[in-house]
Amino acid sequence: MAADAQSLTDMQIARYEEEEDPRQHLMFDPRPREEMNRMVLEAMQTTTPRYWITVGILGLLVALLLFGAWGNMILNGIGLAGVRPPIYWGIFIVTFVFWIGISHAGTFVSAILRVFKAEFRRPFTRAAELMTTFGLAAGALYPLIHLGRVWVFYWMMPYPNARWLWPNFRSALVWDFLAITTYLLSSTIYLYLPLIPDLAMARDRTEGWRHYFYMVLSLGWRGTEAEWLRLRKAIGIFAFAIIPVMFSVHTIVSWDFAATQVAGWSSTIFGPYFIVGAILSGVSAVITILFVLRSTMKNMKYFIRPEHFNALGKLVLVFSMSWAYFFFNEYLLHWYGGYKVVRDLLMHHATGPAAWIWYTMLICNVAIPWLTLWNKKIRSNPTAMFVITLLINVGMFAERYTIIPLTLGYQRFPFNWGQYTPRLTEISIVLGTFCLFIFLYMVVSRLIPLVPVWEVQEGQHAHTLRKVGKSEVPSVTELD
Amino acid sequence: MANTENTGKWGMVIDTDRCTGCMACVTACAMENNIPWTGEEEAGYGRGMHWIRVQRLWHGEYPEVKPEFTPTMCQQCGHAPCEPVCPVFATVHSEAEQINLQVYNRCVGTRYCGNNCPYTARTFNFFDHEFPTPMDFYLNPDVTVRRRGVMEKCTFCVQRIHKGQEKARAEGRPVKDGEIVPACAQACPADAIVFGDMSDSESQVSHIARSERRYQLLPELGTEPRVTYLKGGGYYGG
Question: pTM for this structure?
């Protein structure tokens, strides 16, 4: 007995030594308030020549690739794009769905993790919320870009007019329009609310134009008890309210396809399938961006740590598995349902001339995350996570490409089968919106505190290391 | 009973056993409806604009092959998939003629209807197309010339339907069977296309549509096409 007890203690000691030092976690590694404020402000105000050159080039590329090519297309006709019957939607809609998917990251990481009190969310909620806003801004351009007559786009909006003409509320496109507008509006408010105390912090510690800029934006925040109470209430309401909005947005985007009778689109699982895909690509994009922020911005290595890559990596693995389930389910149902057209279509994806896109999708979305993300060492390695998550987003782009042009090309009449290759104008516009996203993100990263300082400080107050006997036990205080 | 008022349910029967694949219908349709020619390059890219096309499929193994021609145009579905998806009501069902109409001025060019048409019957104006002189003298004044960015498709020559109805109304008589003929039917040298009032059970088109050789395109979708096809019963030697 005594020997048993002795060996048990040895094992415990060994396990304890294997366990990492809790101070590796941001929450257990507090710094004084003023120092942390200074660190965030410094990250925001430091601009290197390399930064300005990058921003300048990106701005130029946005003007040229996006607005130049788009303007040229408006003047000459949508025919400059490569779409041709029967494939009326091409890479524009692919990229549209892609950006809307990216925009799910902010809400998922910020609202859902906030509601479930996941403490690791604290330092990067804002970075994720910014992705939502700019992802939506980039994505919301596409329903306009792809129109044949963009100058009358407002006919899709319900507005009172003398002819009593309303949009067709049976059309998924009108819902789409309304859902995206709602999401853009609510996610911007949701981004802004937790920003107010940080803006006030910046206001009190800056001079010149920045002082006036933050003075206006912080709405006279003083940090009184009543203000905090109201702010917390508002954030609480928004965090809960924005979750159904997020789910509805990508469900409705999926209805653009599911509510048709195109073989391969008309599917009842498209709603959840798209949402899971969106969250997979969104959370992956958060990791990608966190890596970039960590390696380019000052003091970010303190806030963004391997533990965050580890935690988000677990989420990515879970969503990659759910995505694979939905993907498999589609095949299973159509095998069981036995509608020949769809069954042949799904075979066509895997064996047709564009099968390499299908395989890219599966390798990037399933094989790579499943083979790597089970390992904590890989999950905690920011560079590895950067590469993996970038590949996952390549895979998700391939998924949307398979769903849209490749499915449209496979019509019920073999006579109408078609193929599609994006043309220069399309590729230019797609690259242009990527530049737009990075451009906006880079500019705003130097305008607002990218780390929610008050949330980090709040979390650090709640986390303490308590001495129990001779060991230190991490303990967390429940905040509400 | 034939109709004096706009209550007809217009329909078409196409006898694929008679069709020789001569493309006269395609040409006649283009002339009647001011369909632009998109040019060699665009047509080669698959953007040739036709409201009717002749789908040619081969039967049998070489050298024992037999072509089958199926002239296909908008099927004027009773439950049209194109209609509910249009966000601006540019694709509408006409109560009077019971056909699908495209409101060119309202179309914003989402091309959603083109995706959702199982017959791929719609064509899109990817560019503005010129009618080079002297071809512009042929432009039909009864039909709108479409600009770039709008969708278009077969209308069953709705302008001819209206003309026939107005003429009959002015003369105070019902529209006679066979009085209204769309351009494709008029041009067909083999009389493979017959057009008329389907609600009149005595009309020629109703008679032929009751043939046991009848079939419809993709009936499993429940689109209720207004076009009936005939094939392979040996009636005309098929």
Answer: 0.91
Q: Compute the distance between CA of residue A183 and CA of residue A241 in angstroms, rounded to an integer.
A: 11
Describe chain B by its helix, strand, coil percentages, rounded to 5.
25, 20, 60
Does the beta carbon of A161 lie under 8 angstroms from any beta carbon of chain B?
no
Domains of chain B: 10-230 (3.30.70.20)
Inspect the interface and report whether the beta carbons of A155 and B120 lie closer than 8 Å.
Answer: no
CATH fourth-level superfamily of A37-476: Formate dehydrogenase/DMSO reductase domain (1.20.1630.10)
In this predicted complex, what is the ipTM?
0.89
Two tokens, residue A341: 């057209």
- Please tell me the distance in Å from B134's CA to the nearest CA on chain A: 24
Count, in order, helices (H) and strands (E) of chain A: 24, 2
Count of pairs with CB atoms under 8 A, one residue in A, one in B? 126
Residue of A nearest to B114 (CA): A88
Domain spans of chain A, in order of start: 37-476
C-alpha to C-alpha distance for A221 and A194, rounded to whole angstroms: 12
Is the Cβ–Cβ distance between B56 and B21 less than 8 Å?
Answer: yes
Contact A79 B88 (CB under 8 A): no
CA distance A342 to chain B (A): 13
Per-residue confidence of chain A (480 residues) as pLDDT tens digits? Answer: 455 555 556 666 656 555 667 777 888 888 888 888 888 888 888 888 999 999 999 999 999 999 999 999 999 999 999 999 899 999 999 999 999 999 988 788 888 888 888 888 888 889 999 999 999 999 999 999 999 999 999 998 888 888 888 899 999 999 988 999 999 999 999 999 999 999 999 999 988 899 999 999 999 899 899 999 999 999 989 888 888 898 999 899 999 999 999 988 988 889 999 999 999 999 999 999 999 999 998 888 888 888 899 999 999 999 999 999 999 998 888 888 888 889 899 999 999 889 999 999 999 999 999 999 998 888 989 999 999 999 999 999 999 999 999 999 999 998 999 999 999 999 999 999 999 999 999 999 999 999 999 888 888 888 888 888 888 888 888 766
Smallest Cα distance from B57 to chain A, Å: 8
